[in-house]
Design a protein that fits this description.
Helix 3 runs antiparallel to helix 9 and helix 11 packs parallel to helix 17. This protein is mostly helical and about 475 residues long. Helix content is about 80%, strand content about 0%. The radius of gyration is 21 Å and the shape is globular. It is built from 18 helices and no strands. It folds into 2 domains: about 375 residues, Up-down Bundle (Growth Hormone, Chain: A); about 55 residues.
Amino acid sequence: MNEDPVVIPRSSWLTLAVTSIAAFMIAIETSIISLALPQLRAGFPEASESKLSWIVNAYTIGVASLLLVSGWLADRYGRKRLFFWGLFVFLIASCAAGLAPSANFLIAARVVQAIGGAMQYPAGLALLLAAFPPSKIQTAIGTWGAMGGLAAALGPTLGALLVDAFDWQAVFFINVPVAALVILFGPKWVAESYSDSIPTKVDLISVPLASLGVGTAIFAITQGNKWGWSSFGLITSFAIAALLVLAFIVRSQRHPAPLFDLALFKLKTFSVGMIGTLFFIVAFFAWLISLPTFIQGTWGWSVLKTGFAIAPGPLLTAFVSPPAGRLAERIGNGPLLTIGGILGAGGLTCHLLFTKVEPDYIKGILLPSLLIGFSAGFGFAQLIGAAMRDVPRDQFGMAGAGRTTIFQLSLALGVALAFTIIGRPENPNDALDGLQATWMMGIGCFVLQTILFAFFGSGEKTKANTS
């Protein structure tokens, strides 16, 4: 006897639309700003290179530092409330960033942007998961996760177009109308959700331990290439981060109302999803961030031409992710992530074979990019689905915040490793050698992802109910 089809209410699709738009806006903010750095350099000639780097780092470190706190706040005080307040903070900060009269003012605005972004991300994911019936969550995550691929595809191209036409201010003002429309219409479409089991009071000591620990770790990773990986300052920073995170773990194990429930790691799907996220994100972003520099520096292509050249792979991710989510409801996340790891390793192997000092777009960029695009289509959303599959609905915000914290740490690590491996090449052959070493590292990560999900990933269909 066939089961009755699950009817998804209109409100669920509206929640998906609202949270997906916000997720796209936050994701594109990370990639689009890097293309405006030359214009920012010209706009603030008095600012040092170190200060300019903080225009990027302030946002990355700020978001990562506040995610765990935001996850608890969303579950405790209302996911909708925190999501839209975060969106409002993000809108105001984007306006301030676009109007910044100095580099210091812009950095401060980026910190406030980070606060808004951190408030939105775990709350938005929790709203999405709560809005859909359990058996259709993978479909929702597939569409929501596609926004990451779309942002990666459009970020470099859109950033180049905006900067060429309107200067650096445009990369911040582009957020304003989008955020304003979501704030105007979104509250009517999205239903509030809370956690019934979240403690009314949180362990206040864990808040600074977690925020400072994660923030210091991200800071150390981003400074590694500049300070030197064996420098006293960097080793000290990593030691401080490790001590703070260790103190947070010990405190969370003993406190009756922890900021983050470490028991989530007892869920096999959550733990495997976190490890898989590390492998995939390091490989993907080490590839995505380093390739444009090679194309521009060695092949001599313009920023705009480079943006269009690398767009097909990430754009393919946006098309593959939604049907992959529907497929995951029938066969589970594990098989898709296993295939994704194989495709990712295949794409980077094609780079090793065909990408040379002389330009060859079809074999050297397009073919590898399309394979990696398929891999990411089976990666971004499926890793979220794998990690959140068995999480109780009352802990959606907390678990989503933990997952995104690992994502941010992995992203920073992937970028830092890529730039450290590549270094400062003196000629095109050195640049290619460095890039090939990065691809070999990425192949290793994709192979580990394949092994992980082939043996430990869930091949079960989505459960019809949750605890």
